[in-house]
């Protein structure tokens, strides 16, 4: 036995096994190293070792890569990319799959040699299909990336991940062709040149596709709106109330002002006595206003349907007192408000005001949690999704986390929504919260752990935030920025070795939170000052029949407010909050960015929600080869270099 030769073979097998992995398919230099190791010194044992390594690669568990085309493309919505194209791609891949299954582990025979005569044409057709012709026909990845489908409401899986999987099966099919050709004693220089330049062009074509595809996901409207499941609101926080000036503490004992402006910043303190046909009608509001009256406007004598206390509305409809309203249903009670005269001297006006519920005994939804939500990095978990959550009278940010595996992929089955904890509300004073720690509740600190939305603190900054270079997101939080009088989003990122999937050691508390002011990466939207995003006088969001779509851009600010009087009697607080999870429903990916956005339709209040930005794999595709390698293989490559 030739022990020296055996040692070299074992060394070669160990070396390529250790150095060539799935991530190597993204690097032309690593591909060249593998090809050269197999082709430059033909040896049956080396070829066998290389074949066993290539055979060990499974893409989503599939050995037959035609199944990957089916899963990621045939079964995905597509439009400009046709069924015929996908079938053609699948056919090319399956021909190589079938040959590999039949001949991959066999010693070269007549059948293999016959197939190998057809192989250059199959690989050439696959090459032309994938990279295009450099003129009118674009490469397949670019066609996928620019296809109008799946549109944003159909996306279940990250498009970069789909293109990455496709690229992997293209390179592996090429390497299978390399090994089959060498086993059949084809010219090693031509076989190697074909594998090298096809791979290099595949890399460029895939990277072009990635550059065309904006790597993000947001929610669309659900099939049905379900309060508490798909959406919620700051219910009752800013809500219209119809009053007579007499009912407020804005008047003294002698006279009214006769102007609704004078009622602003007053309180609703008493019932209303209305003289009608020689009798006095006393009206007390079903729901008190636990706070201030603001933005008051005179509306004249009114007949209105006042709802019962358990309704989310105070009033259903309102008409002039002399209008016929007999045709209108009222699941509450019909109440009349008329201008009154105090001591026959001063006129007391009927006003519609916004009740701002900001006292401790208020039952309105008015709190945002500021508690950071962090992934369990000690378990190698990273953020994979986010949503608004409504729990214990607060709106929270809740993150989905998943275990980061090798090559930037999330380990299947590890994704989970991080628990929020249990909270308790205390109505004393202006109100406060406690969090459960063990068997006890510990009091939280306002402006640190939570903050109330109020008349003078109801602005939300709409920002787009990115992880630092080479890092992934591991956390998110809201802060209340007192300098800007606004709620702001912040994220935390963490260093990672994408190839191994290992997160760096350390303590998250030692790493600075990333906000709009200190971000390393910012879009051009931040080149100027922050601008106001005006919702305006709008109707209740659920009343539109059109699709809500993103209307905001980063570096804007939005003010929470009531709906308009004409359509909704100021009965709702907008925008609503989208409670739907923002995460890929099939394969999860690590995140590199997060944006808080407003989705809506003109004239309606819309929704606050999120856009997640997946980790960008574009720069992982290294297609540039050295001049010496180019010159070494180019004379033996007889096809056009398209890209």
UniProtKB/TrEMBL annotation:
Protein name (database record): Uncharacterized protein
Organism name: Glyptapanteles indiensis
Cross-referenced PANTHER family: LD24308P
Top-level taxonomic group: Eukaryota
